[in-house]
Structures are given as C-alpha cells and as structure tokens.
C-alpha cells in the first residue's frame, strides 16, 4: 500500500518536473510541519543524550543528560557502530506517545576537521529510486550501509509489536541530524511507516534540490532547527544562482537567534518559509560559529563521545557483538532492567 503511494508520488513528481521545470525545488503540495516549541525542546534533550558514551547509563536511562524532559524514557535498543564511530538509540517515550530514535553526531574534538571537509563534499550518489535526486554518499552510508539501519529498523518493528502504532520521532544533531533525515525517509519509503516526524539540530545539507522535493513530499513533518551563526547548516555550500546543481536544504527551517543587549537578550524562534533556503533565516547571517553549533536551546550538544564501547559487563546478557566489534544492546521494554545498574550510587558530579 505504502509502496503504491510512493509510486504515485513519484509519478506526480515526474509530471510536475516536466510541466514546471526548474521551479520544482520550492513547491510542496503537502502541508508542511507546524513548529512545536515544546516538542523541539524535548527532542533536543534526546539529541544531546545520545552523545553520552557510557552504554550502561544510556541503556538504563540514568546518564547525566537522561532526565528533565526525557525522564521515564525506555530504551529498547542501543546501537554502537564502533567501526564507523556511530551511535544511536531507539526507545519509547510514553509522555510523547512515540517511539524516539536519536543519532549521535561527530565527536567534539574532530568537529573542526569535519567542518573543513564539509566545504568540499560532492553530490556523488543517486538516491535509489528517485530520479535526479543526489546526495552525499558519506552521509547516506552512515545510516544505510552500517549496523545502524538494521538495528533501528528491527527495534522499531519490535516497539510496534509491543505498543501498537505509535508515532515515530527521529532526531539528531549535526551529522546525527543528517542520519535522522535519511532514517525518517527510509522508514517512510521502505518500511511502510506512517506518522514519521523528523526534528534535527544544526545539520548540514545532505542533498540537491530534486532530493529535497521528494523529501518534502514524503516526510513533510520535518523541522530543521538552526542556531544563530552556527556554521554547519551553511555547509556544504549553497549557490543561489545554481540552485538546481548544488546542495539544498529541505524545509522547514526554524532559526533561533538572539536580539537585545546585555541583560535584555532574548531568543527569537523564527519559523521560516517552505523553500528550505529561506534567505531571511540562517542564510541571512554568516556561518562563522562553532560554539553556536554546540548549544541548542541552551542544551549542550556534542561531548565526551569516544569510538570505544564503555559497558558494564553485567549488560552482556543484552548485547550482541559482530566480528567488527560493533555492539547492539537490546531488551524487551516490559522486562525490568538489571537492578545492579540502576542502584542509587550516582557519582556526585552527576547531580
Ligand atoms: C506540542 O508537543 C507536545 C509534546 O511535546 C504536545 O503535548 C502538544 O500537544 C503539542 N502541541 C501542539 C499544538 O500540537
Ligand atoms: C556497503 O557496505 C558493504 C559492507 O560493509 C561494502 O562491501 C560496500 O562496499 C559498501 N558500499 C559502498 C558503495 O560503499
């Protein structure tokens, strides 16, 4: 059924492309997402928590960032792709009535190099099944060609079996935002999942204008939050005069920026137009800040992540490891988790 819908969408897109030529990049027939501040400030905490490297704390949701608006979250699956230094989790947030999926971004100490590389990323991969849609293969493969995708898809399937048809909310910061977008699209197109929402923070561009048109049709419920002068949403570069040829952001951007002076500073949350490249939003300023990349809504992003597995041996019963050393921790959310890992011997620096 979903596949039929997708074929219909594809046919519509082709007809649209033929009749309307180059304008295709800014037209979205579906109603795009409304911005929900409460939801964004909740999801940003998930996107922040996924940077924590202690798997035991994450799996039992006792990490220093695992509280506040995310309290009570139940992790179903934690995926650590050691080989590619990627991390993500899938779980159920009862207060949101949703399955939440979050992806970690690049390690903080490698961010300057990563940003440098972003200037030169080529659109070098045809997105499968979408004529003319081009993406960057590195972002695409981080989600599609690692242990991340099967881990996520499997966990979503199990969560749905256990809880019924919950909404799906996919989030991530930076490179994790790029993965969240590919994941939201994949679940919609290839896994017959409805009700997918994507909220990303400080993500780079991932595809061209044709890709963005498909994306906007298929995952209209997407919010892409940008912050002040954060450099990453400016990359890879967008050239307005060659809008069809270069990278292009998908909608809907929400740009956070400060106005005022001294003690009178407050943050404006500007909901941008449905083009993805609203010239009055993040693009109206120069992207020259890494520090504004590392805090969204006052929540610290990035952090201590390492590419190693840090895990209490008592969690071995929940884990599977492949030949490359990639680890998946998996559990039935109704089973109570090992008591040993949730004892109240919380280190003092956590409080
Ligand atoms: C915004 O999201 C919250 C969940 O975080 C939800 O409770 C609320 O109903 C949403 N508001 C609207 C207007 O959809
Ligand atoms: C995808 O991953 C497989 C196995 O890890 C690898 O052999 C293949 O080359 C990858 N595909 C590309 C195009 O990089």
From TrEMBL:
Listed Pfam families: Lipase_3
GO biological process, one term: lipid metabolic process
UniProt signal peptide: 1-21
Residue span, Fungal lipase-type domain: 100-237
Keywords: Hydrolase, Signal
CDD domains cross-referenced by the UniProt entry: Lipase_3 (cd00519)
GO molecular function ontology, one term from the record: hydrolase activity
Coiled coil (residue ranges): none
Protein's name according to its UniProt entry: Lipase
Organism: Actinidia chinensis var. chinensis (Chinese soft-hair kiwi)
Upper classification of the organism: Eukaryota, Viridiplantae, Streptophyta, Embryophyta, Tracheophyta
């Amino acid at each position: 059924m979903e596949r039929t819908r997708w074929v219909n969408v594809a046919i519509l897109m082709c007809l649209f492309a033929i009749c309307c030529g180059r304008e295709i990049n800014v037209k979205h027939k579906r109603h795009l997402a409304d911005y929900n501040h409460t939801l964004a400030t909740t999801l940003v905490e998930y996107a922040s928590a996924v940077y924590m490297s202690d798997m035991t704390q994450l799996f039992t949701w006792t990490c220093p960032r695992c509280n506040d608006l995310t309290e009570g979250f139940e992790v179903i699956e934690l995926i650590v792709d050691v080989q590619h230094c990627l991390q993500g989790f899938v779980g159920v947030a009862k207060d949101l009535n949703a399955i939440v999926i979050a992806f970690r971004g690049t390690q903080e100490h490698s961010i300057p190099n990563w940003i440098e590389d972003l200037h030169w990323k080529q659109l070098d991969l045809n997105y499968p099944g979408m004529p003319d849609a081009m993406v960057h293969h590195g972002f695409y493969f981080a989600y599609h060609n690692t242990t991340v995708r099967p881990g996520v898809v499997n966990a979503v399937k199990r969560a749905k079996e256990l809880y019924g048809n919950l909404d799906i909310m996919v989030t991530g910061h930076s490179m994790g935002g790029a993965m969240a977008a590919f994941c939201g699209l994949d679940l919609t197109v290839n896994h017959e999942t409805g009700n997918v929402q994507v909220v990303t923070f400080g993500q780079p561009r991932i595809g061209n204008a044709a890709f963005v048109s498909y994306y906007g049709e298929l995952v209209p419920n997407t919010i892409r939050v940008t912050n002040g002068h954060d450099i990453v949403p400016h990359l890879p570069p967008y050239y307005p005069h060659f809008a069809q040829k270069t990278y292009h952001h998908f909608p809907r951007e929400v740009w956070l920026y400060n106005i005022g002076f001294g003690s009178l500073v407050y943050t404006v949350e500007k909901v941008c137009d449905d083009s993805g490249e609203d010239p009055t939003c993040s693009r109206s300023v120069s992207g020259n800040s890494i520090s504004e990349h590392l805090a969204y809504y006052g929540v610290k992003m990035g952090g201590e992540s390492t590419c190693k597995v840090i895990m209490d041996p008592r969690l071995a019963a929940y884990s599977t490891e492949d030949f490359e050393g990639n680890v998946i921790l998996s559990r039935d959310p109704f089973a109570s988790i090992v008591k040993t890992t949730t004892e109240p011997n919380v280190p003092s620096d956590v409080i």
